[in-house]
Amino acid sequence: MTALKTASLAALVTGALTGVLTTGTALAADTVKIGYQLPLTGETAQYGQDFRKAAEIALTEFNAAGKPFKAEIVFEDSRSDAKEGTNIARKFVDDKEIVGVLGDFTSGVSMASAQVYKDAGMPQLSQTASHPDYTKISKYQFRNIATQAQEGPYNAKWMLSKGYKNIAVIAEQTDWGQSVVSGFTDGVKANGGTVVFSEFFNRGLKDYRSLISKLERAKPDAIYTGFFYEDGAQFLRQVQQLGIKTPVYSTSAAYSPKLIELAGEAAEGVHLTSNFLPTDPAPHIQHFVTEWKAASNGAVPGQFPAQAYDAVRIMLAAVEKAYPNPTREKVRDALAQTKDFPGVTGKTSFSADREAEKELVKVEVKGGAFVPVAD
Amino acid sequence: MNVSDLSAPRRGQGALIPLLLALLVFVGLPALLAGFDRGYFYQIANLALIFILLSASMHLVTGVAGLLHLGHAAFYGVGAYTAALLSTKFGLGFTVTLPLSGLVAALIAFLVALPTMRLVSIYFAVATLAIGQMLYLVMLNWVEFTKGPNGIIVTKGLELFGFSLSGRLATYYTVATVVALCVLAIGRLSHSYYGNALRSIREDDQCADAMGVSTARLKMEAFTLSAFFAGVAGSLWAHMTGYISPGDFKFSESILILAMVVVGGLGSLPGAVIGALLLILLPEGLRAFGDFRNIMVGLVMFLSILLLPKGLLGEVSALQLARRQLGAAWRNTVKGEGIGWR
After folding, report:
1. Which is nearest to B218 in space by CA: B201, B204, B203, B230?
2. CATH number at residue A316
3. Where are the domains of chain B?
């Protein structure tokens, strides 16, 4: 028994160490490496897997386009865990060939990793990190997502123009949910409306009925919501079950075909904003949609994969601009100069504080599909 | 097993192994780390050290006293939040926040322990689960005080009386020194008459009570002490990473720490240390296997419990403890009808 114990112990620890010590193989001179940290396993794996798929589409295109160099993306799984995120960040920083990093998915992991990238001078572009302080960490943090400081007031004006003066707000209890409520509330107040109710719920809540009835007691003209599609579908179904007809508005984060798939009829009439329309006939958008469908059994891409696809292409464009001899500093400067990048999520420019400036589109769910509306 | 064997110093090797370990941690490893000079290895070494402390602190409650603790990460979080809030709101440095983090975590553990420590077996486990969730929800939802899900950026790094220790090697030495001292203290606690009193609770709390051991008080002390060390680990994490949010201290972290103690071997301090090393190094080492690495980590844990029910270096069997904690109704044989629930 003791011998077995000792042997198995030795084997395990050695195995773990060898793995840690193994380093990547050397690359040919005309290859540039980018790191991508994202949750490929764990509770948020569905998002990370989508990002990888989108990144691979972008990468294949780039490498097939006859550019002077080939690009390579190193994917590392962070499990949406800050511990793993910082480990990966150190690993990417150690690899001298990596000139830029994409990710992470959640703001929490992105910000913990950003502490490493800040000190190392590594440009970091997240497709989704929405924490108000993320880009303030250092000049190396960028994001390719419209913040709630931009989307909130936009939606507030939209709802007020429809005559809804008393609005109830609910959002998930995350940093993003906090910014949804603050961004929207500021917008409503500035334009003469009133927020009559605001509350947070924990992600993954199964029963929204008590929240919904509490909300209805405030007699709102409309409900503004900050959730992702899983929570959104639950919420909408329960709103329908309770027979409530108050109009529901939401953010671009809920913009996913899976919302309609999971909520079914209950999603009818939901209004939300988006900066990606898979039905847009523009050739570059249709190209992405076709590629995505081919890679995912005909499913239509949602907002997040589109943002990831654009983020990868923006990063690759910056690397190309910094080529030959791209350095982390040169890539950072090239990223900062990004102006009117023609992405599938609209034209993207980075402002002086490295925030993505995007155009938003108004969308309504009609007949089981997202339909753009004028107002 | 004769309980007195467990704490008797083994003559001859008593001083040699700790000396070799100290040499490894303070000379061998730093030399290796400096040789490779890669931030990634430093990061993993520091992370492993912090989890060694967490695992060792839980060992005191779960391993030695035999109480299933499902909320340990919350005290780790209390420590981290204490350090982060003291440093951002009052500008205090690591030298001050380190002991305070431990003390605040211990104080909170003491307060929540007061009404709960008379509970036994599964009721104790559920109470600690509830305590952990309550503290987590406070970190998440008390937005005005903890900044809630927004987390806190900790700008102050490691330092000693104002002297910065934020270089790679200095960080490693700081973390290693703090962890080594704490583990030493935990070792002294668990291998002493005091530790034996805790073991008597694990083996038979009613008997211990009848012999005059104050079980409720001892449980409270072990719980509070373990929270103190978890708090210290939290302070290290907060100053080392520079950003904390409630997600770092959720239930799954408690389970991770519990798994370290169980895989390493319940009741054994070296086991707790090795369990922590294994569960931090293995997922990193298996990165090359991509999406399968978590399955492989799970497999290693499963096999180690199946084949080595006492863990790698265990004193008691994890299965026995689980049965005693979770199922008073579990029987090894019910009149020749095999094992099962009554």
Report:
1. B201
2. 3.40.50.2300
3. 25-251
The reply to whether A164 and A71 lie within a common domain is no
Q: Is A84 on the interface with B (CB under 8 A)?
A: yes
Q: Which of A239, A274, A309 is the last residue of a domain?
A: A274
| Amino acid B168: pLDDT | 87
pLDDT band at B276 (very low <50, low <70, confident <90, very high): very high
Report yes or no on A25 lying in a domain. Answer: no
In this complex, do A175 and B287 lie within 8 Å of one another by their Cβ atoms?
Answer: no
pLDDT at res. A15: 52
B17-46: per-residue pLDDT in tens?
A: 888 888 888 888 888 888 888 889 999 999
Q: Which of A230, A248, A274 is the last residue of a domain?
A: A274
Is A105 among the domain residues? Answer: yes
Long-range Cβ contacts of A344-348 (<8 Å, 24+ apart): A344/A276, A344/A284, A344/A285, A344/A288, A344/A306, A344/A309, A344/A310, A345/A144, A345/A275, A345/A276, A345/A303, A345/A306, A345/A307, A345/A310, A346/A275, A346/A276, A348/A144, A348/A310, A348/A314
In a domain, A69, yes or no: yes
Nearest CA in chain A to B304: A8
Domain count, chain A: 2
User: Cβ of A104 under 8 Å from any chain B Cβ?
Assistant: no
Indicate if A157 and A141 belong to the same structural domain. no
Q: pLDDT confidence of B340, banded at 50, 70, 90?
A: low
**Residues of A with Cβ-Cβ distance to B143 under 8 angstroms:** 178
Indicate the pTM of the whole model.
0.84
Interface of A with B in 117-176 (CB under 8 A): 120, 131-133, 137, 173-176
Q: Which domain holds residue A314?
A: 31-146+289-357
Residues A60, A171 within the same domain: no
B236/B233 Cα distance (integer angstroms): 5
Give per-residue pLDDT as tens, A22-50. 444 444 458 999 999 999 988 888 899 99
Ranking A141-150, A165-174, A264-273 by mean pLDDT, the lowest is A141-150
Q: How confident is the model at residue A268 (pLDDT cuts 50, 70, 90)?
A: very high
A77 interaction partners in chain B (CB closer than 8 Å): 287, 290-291, 293
Q: Which residues of A touch B151 (CB under 8 A)?
A: 108, 111, 131, 175
Pair (A68, A154) in one structural domain:
no
Mutate to test the interface with A, among B42, B245, B248, B268 (most CBs of A within 10 A): B245
Chain A contact set for B278 (CB, 8 A): 12-13, 16
Distance from CA of B193 to the nearest CA of A (A): 27
Q: What is the pLDDT of residues A105-157, one digit of tens each?
A: 998 899 999 999 999 999 999 998 888 889 999 999 999 988 888 889 999 99
Is residue A16 domain-resident? no
Instruction: Check A114 against B274: CB less than 8 A apart.
Output: no
Residues forming beta bridges with residue A98, ordered by sequence position? A33
Statement to judge: residues A80 and A177 lie in one domain: no
